[in-house]
Design a protein that fits this description.
The chain is about 5% helix and about 50% strand. By secondary structure, it is mainly beta.
Length: about 350
């Protein structure tokens, strides 16, 4: 009996030692290395990266955009071409022996060319209500619609282009600061600034028919649409894609030039396949590629404010350029500003 106990203890000890070795075996330590430790790239440039340590394969992603798969100890050798610009995590999904692990490094992808510089020429001027703190401006079926901001002053309006007369108006509750609008399928979508929700109105009756909540976007700034998808700015470098039926956020682009990240994008307008965006408190309007976020042009509207009849009455910090309306049938472009007394019809010319 005594010998049996000794044998049992010996076997138990061996098993315990063996199991202890397995559990204490160090896990493979992977490192994602980018050649020259580079963190900024442009379209057209080459990315070289590798994951150190034994592995079967690695699949690389730029955010959620799949780049390429490598096998064994192969390095990633990838040229950026059509990817979305911005700050993204370069993600390496590592596979080894049926298990997977992820490593990542943040990189920034810029456009490969500088924005084209544009200026403007005023073709016509029209009256604009000087109490309209313009947030959104849009033509729909030959009618001009406008949203105005400020707590206690926010409204949704239908406006006569020729006279500036307000034809129809709905006041927004004073708890909300109204922001941009867009109109799609006879519905007006209106943002509020900090309340995390937007409103839906019938375009004919101006009756409020619904509400929608924001998702991950920070605030409500500007809206536009391409006929099927809605685009939303939130004051950051991101322009969000909204499902037109549910208003759910389904992704985003980030807006970049060849060397800078653009923020404070405000009122949006869809113009011939591009997004035009006011930059808050600036005289520039960015022309944005909706596929990848590249700022392909900048329109300099300097001097336009000096042509107003009420310039002396305006707050230079807040009563700024804001409001872009494109009439897709006549191909005419109109711009105005917050509390400006004039709406300008302009043509855009390359400098």
């Amino acid at each position: 009996m005594k010998n049996y106990n000794l044998l049992f203890l010996f076997v138990l000890g061996v098993l315990s030692y063996s199991c202890g070795n397995d559990s204490d075996e160090p896990e493979t330590s992977y490192v994602l290395e980018i050649n020259e430790n580079k963190r900024e790239f442009k379209l057209g440039e080459n990315l070289q990266a590798q994951v150190t340590g034994p592995k079967d394969s690695v699949v690389y992603f730029l955010g959620e955009q799949r780049l390429e798969k490598t096998v064994g100890n192969e390095s990633l050798n990838y040229t950026f071409r059509n990817e979305k610009l911005g700050k993204w995590d370069l993600r390496a999904l590592i596979y080894s022996g049926g298990a997977s692990k992820e490593k990542q490094q943040e990189i920034t992808l810029f456009n490969d060319t500088a924005p084209v510089a544009y200026t403007y020429e005023v073709i016509n001027t029209y009256p604009h209500a000087p109490d309209a703190y313009t947030q959104g401006l849009e033509f729909y079926k030959n009618e001009l619609y406008e949203s105005t901001g400020q707590y206690g002053r926010s409204s949704l309006r239908k406006v006569d282009l020729q006279t500036g007369e307000v034809l129809e108006k709905v006041d927004i509750s004073s708890e909300f600061f109204a922001e941009g609008i867009t109109i799609l399928n006879d519905k007006i979508y209106l943002l509020t600034w900090k309340k995390g929700k937007g409103f839906i109105y019938d375009v004919d009756s101006f009756e409020k028919t619904g509400e929608f909540q924001y998702g991950e976007s920070k605030e409500g700034w500007g809206l536009t649409n391409d006929g099927s998808r809605i685009y939303k700015s939130d004051g950051t470098e991101k322009i969000w894609f909204l499902n037109a039926q549910t208003q759910a956020e389904e992704g985003f682009i980030q807006t970049l030039t060849h060397r800078t990240i653009a923020t404070q994008l405000n009122e949006l307008e869809w113009v011939e396949g591009k997004i035009y965006a006011n930059t808050y408190q600036k005289d520039g309007v960015a022309i944005i590629n909706p596929e990848n976020g590249a700022i392909e042009g900048i329109i300099d509207f300097s001097g336009l404010r000096d042509q107003l009849g009420n310039t002396a009455d305006l707050d230079p910090l807040n009563d700024v350029l804001n409001g872009i309306a494109y009439h897709k049938d006549t191909k005419k472009l109109y711009v105005t500003g917050k509390d400006w007394d004039t709406l300008f019809e302009v043509i855009i010319k390359e400098k």
